[in-house]
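Researcher: I'd like a structural prediction for the single chain below. Treat it as a standalone chain; there are no partners to consider.
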Amino acid sequence: MKRCEWVKLDEPLYVEYHDKEWGVPVFDDQHLFEMLCLEGAQAGLSWWTILQKREGYRDAFDQFNASKIVTYTEDKLAALKEDKRIVRNKLKIASVVTNAQAFIKIQQQHGSFSNYIWSFVDHQPIDNKWPTIAEVPATTELSDHMSKQLKKDGFKFVGSTICYSFMQAVGMVNDHIVDCGCRQIQ
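Model: Treating it as a single chain, here is the predicted structure.
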């Protein structure tokens, strides 16, 4: 099967992520929160780096349970800064707590984070039809808008590039190239 050119075909974890996750619409609040935090952790790094550490992140951050994360103490944050299973960047670690606070506030205001985040695309995935990966943008006007709003709502590590990558990851946009076999599966 032909796949998008960015997939490391010799890495089963990457192939599975591409084939079964990337571009598949996600509506579960906790999974959306996890992906937003992981995309933020990716800033300045590769997705491959974060994907390899995802299970470590899940363990370290209580399966991305925002209600638990907002209760983290300074001792817990200090321990996270020493945890080799994650990227040990103090600002990125602190952003998960900040984002958990913003996430809970959004849930209270909008009924769910899913309702809020999917409203950026009118609750329908955008189906792009790019012939090659070279044509896929890193940002769009929509990701610019999402980034500004997320920042206004208290989120950190949510620049436009991160937002667009998040949108791709959770299926808000389908950027599988036109001849990728996963276009038809999803």
